[in-house]
């Protein structure tokens, strides 16, 4: 490998954004990750994530590594292992499941609580309000207001909330912009 290639690779690495996608099982993490990838890198079928999957892609002209970690109860204790060097945390929520908002808020709280003070504690937090395609009109307004209310204290003032759908692609542009903006 020539020196120029090495320098170029290092530059790309320095510029790389490490993004961790977490949230409860079935909230749509893998579907969102798949949607964020360029068309030629997407899978046609999403299966439940066993363990974790890492994808690297150019998004908004930045090299982004997307760490999609399984959200089942048994896997949650392992979330901490992926925290180091994370630049962006995308916390994914299924807005059509109000009965799970409280569980989601509790898990986000305990994740942030455990890892505060560790390297990367100043990460950018984006809350992806996913599955908006399943709701409309006043039920969408009510669910979004309720989830924002449940999470805003936990997520803190700097958190960005993005409404999206991994299935229809709505809000994906905004999500990728929020991930890559300085
Ligand atoms: N209608 C709808 N279904 C979704 C959306 N995102 C994910 N799903 C569905 O929700 C289920 C769980 O999605 P998956 O990405 O595997 O969730 P994960 O466990 O968080 O990775 C699958 O059946 C997806 O097709 C969405 O935005 N809208
Ligand atoms: Mg998954």
Automatic annotation (TrEMBL):
Matching CDD domains: Arf_Arl (cd00878)
Domain of life: Eukaryota
InterPro entries registered for this protein in UniProt: ARL2/3, P-loop_NTPase, Small_GTP-bd, Small_GTPase_ARF/SAR
GO molecular function term, any single one: GTP binding
Binding site for Mg(2+): 30, 49
Annotated positions binding GTP: 23-30, 71, 130-133
Keyword annotations: GTP-binding, Magnesium, Metal-binding, Nucleotide-binding
Family: Belongs to the small GTPase superfamily. Arf family.
Record NCBIfam families: small_GTP
Protein name per the record: Uncharacterized protein
Organism: Torulaspora globosa
Lineage of the species this protein comes from: Eukaryota, Fungi, Dikarya, Ascomycota, Saccharomycotina
């Amino acid at each position: 490998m020539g020196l120029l290639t090495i320098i170029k690779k290092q530059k790309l690495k320095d510029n790389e954004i490490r993004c961790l996608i977490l949230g409860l099982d079935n909230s749509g993490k893998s579907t969102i990750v798949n949607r964020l990838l360029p068309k030629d890198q997407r899978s046609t079928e999403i299966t439940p994530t066993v363990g974790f999957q890492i994808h690297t892609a150019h998004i908004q002209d930045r090299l982004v590594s997307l760490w999609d970690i399984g959200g089942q109860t048994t896997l949650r204790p392992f979330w901490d292992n992926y925290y180091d060097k994370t630049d962006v945390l995308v916390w994914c929520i299924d807005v059509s499941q109000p009965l799970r908002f409280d569980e989601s808020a509790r898990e986000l709280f305990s994740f942030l609580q455990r890892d505060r003070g560790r390297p990367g504690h100043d990460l950018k937090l984006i809350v992806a309000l996913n599955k908006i395609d399943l709701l409309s009109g006043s039920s969408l307004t009510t669910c979004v207001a309720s989830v924002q209310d449940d999470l805003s204290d936990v997520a803190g003032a700097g958190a960005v909330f993005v409404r999206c759908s991994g299935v229809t692609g709505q809000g994906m542009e905004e999500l990728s912009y929020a991930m890559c903006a300085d």
